[in-house]
Structure formats: C-alpha cells, structure tokens
Amino acid sequence: MRGWVGTARAETRTTADGLGAFTRRHGRLYSVLRIAIDDIAQLDDHEVEEAVRSAYGEFQRELACARRHPIRFWNFIPGIQTPATTAPERYMVFNRGRFRAFESWFGPGPASFPFLPAASSVGTVGPALVVHCLAAPDPGRHVENPRQTPAYRYSPRYGPVPPSFARATVTPAPDGGYRVLVAGTASVLGEETAHQNGLDAQTAETLRNMASILHASLGPLHAGGDDPLDGLDRFQSLRVHLLNGGDVHQIAPVVASRFPNAVDIEFCQAEICRRDLLIEVEGVATLTA
C-alpha cells in the first residue's frame, strides 16, 4: 500500500482514546491509515468492542478532514477464534465494535450496507489488534458475490451482529482502467462453509468465488467464457492465508498456475475467521478501460 501513496511522509500520534498508535500517509491519490491497539488480551469484551468502535471512528474523522473515502480495510486480530465472555469468539466482539462504528459513519442498519468497502479479517500472533485502511478521493463501487450471501446479511449463527464488508471494491486506477480490490475470500457458499477441512476442495471453491466476484465487479466490461475460473489472469497481486503453514508446498503450485499474471504472491500462516476454514485468498485485479 505504501507504493500507492508514493513518497508521502508517515505521521504517527497516539489514538484519541490513548489505547494505541495512529499512523497516516496522504499521497496525491491515495491515503493509507493504520491503527494499532495495544495488547487486547488485557481488555475485557466491552473494552475490545469500544476500542474497535473508537479506532474506526478515528478513521472516519481523519478521512472526513482529508475528503477521502475508505475503499479497503485489513483487520489483524490476535486470537481471532479465542472464546470470549459475551460471544463465542473474539471475532464476534470485533464485529460488534465495527458495526457500531459503521452505523455512525454510514447510517443505521441496512442504510449503511451499500457503502461498506471490501475488507479482510484474519488472526495474528502479535499482541496488538492492527487495522489498515486504504482510502481514495472516489468512494468506489462495492460489489457482492452472487454465489455468497452478503456478509452483512449473515444469520445469527455467525454472531448477533454480522460482519460488515463487501466482497470487493472497484476503484479507478490512476493510469486508466480500474482496480478490483477483492476482499478475503474463502470456501463459503451462501453463508455455509463448503468442503469442511478439505484443503484441495476448499482451494478450488475459493478460486471459483474469486472468479465470480471478479465477474460481478467488472459487469458489462467483462467478456466471460464458459470456464468458471475465467478472469483469474487479471489478478496482479495476491495474499494467501493458510491455517497450516506447511500447506504452502501443496497450494503454491495451484496458485501459480491459476494466476499466471500475478507478479506479487504472498503466503501467510494465520487463523481464519471460521474454525473449519483452511485457506483464505485476497487480491488486486486490473482492468483496462
């Protein structure tokens, strides 16, 4: 993301609630913001929820001053699957705080849904909860996947407050055409995990979802064929999260063959937001005008 803001200088200060550090870089076309909330294991559920709400509120205020719009979030949550006191796991506590912030930012309930940008949420081994935000002058166009229930419409099985993100955000590229920022994507059909604990099958389903998201993003600009994976050659960069790091040797050749034009592929070991998911993939695709 730093490459998207050029030589913009990083400015860091303490967050308004005093719980962490806020860093901002405002480039000519893009802004990159980062908030790191100190050791959240020391906070109870209410404090975690309030810290998340406060962090997203800080993004809102900063971007309002800069006259920019959020187009992508990355959330790195320590112990994302750790049982919580007021919810089955910490991710659901995080979702409560994010949902409250977005209601304030974009409007209550369903009114906010068309404005939710793409996002990813995975676990991290570090003690701090870290959120990155990419913003631009244009709010972009937020897209859903016809193969999946929108995350913000998930049933209460996935928490009393749903995850708040779009499957992708389409934004103009500075050199013409478009960038498609695809959110963290996994083997989910409707709202159900498909192929529980089967890595090969989950990987194949994940790639079908990524192709479907891309087709939905490009709309009439895409001339699709009969191949359900058609369009994956448009991806330029990818990040692949694997629950088990040793699986990289099995998955890397598949990713390389299916994404022949991706010049930047990163593999990470991370807990994913559901216990039965083994892989999650995100990426950036390009489309010439």
Structure in a nutshell:
This protein has 289 residues and is α+β, with helices and mostly antiparallel strands. It has one domain (2-287): RutC-like (60s Ribosomal Protein L30, Chain: A, 2-Layer Sandwich).
Overview of this protein structure:
The protein has 289 residues and is α+β, with helices and mostly antiparallel strands. The protein has a single domain (2-287), classed as 2-Layer Sandwich (60s Ribosomal Protein L30, Chain: A), CATH 3.30.1330. The protein is built from 4 helices and 14 strands. The strands form 3 sheets. The chain has a 6-stranded mixed sheet, covered by helices on one side. A 6-stranded mixed sheet has the order 7-8-9-14-12-13, covered by helices on one side. It has a two-stranded antiparallel sheet with strand order 10-11. Strand 8 (168-172) and strand 9 (178-185) form a beta hairpin. The longest helix has 22 residues, at 45-66. The radius of gyration is 18 Å and the shape is globular. The two termini are 23 Å apart.
